[in-house]
Amino acid sequence: MTTDAKAVLKRYFDAFNAGDTDGMLAEVSDTVAHHVNEGKIREGKAKFAEFCAHMSRCYREQLTDIVIFGTDDGTRAAAEFVVNGTYLATDPGLPEAKGQNYRLPGGSFMTLKDGKITRVTTYYNLADWLAQVS
Questions:
Q1: Average per-residue pLDDT in the chain?
Q2: Residue 2 has pLDDT above 70, yes or no
Q3: Which residues contact 134 (CB under 8 A, 6 or more apart)?
């Protein structure tokens, strides 16, 4: 049976917007590879969960204008969106957080196997974000 990759991503992003990290984690494999924009690749669900917890401490984000694309065979999917956020707590190596709001386009690319996300690659313009919060 072919996985509906678009449905998996919809559940993943619905959980993201609800602040439901457990819901996001339910959609990723135990061996997920998380390719972070401007960062190192994190391997495994535990490291992905740590990243999500860190992000929840430092940022409050909602994604709007989400458009999800998926391959017919259910192995690849992508989403384009607008990130609407508030910088809550200073992230080490980045400008001081003072509750700054930001809005920028972003995208995620995913690989799926057996109905679970095995790779998450997210892109956004870091220079644009830095200009908005500095």
A1: 95
A2: no
A3: 95
Does the pTM surpass 0.90? The reply is yes
Mean of pLDDT values over 54-76: 96
CATH number of 5-133: 3.10.450.50
Report the alpha-carbon distance of residue 34 to residue 40 in Å, rounded. Answer: 8
Helix, strand, or coil here: 76? strand
Q: Dihedral, CA atoms, 119, 21, 105, 3, nearest 10 degrees? A: 40
Every domain of the chain and the residues it spans:
5-133
* Nearest-angstrom CA–CA distance, 47 and 113: 19
Q: How many residues does the chain have?
A: 134
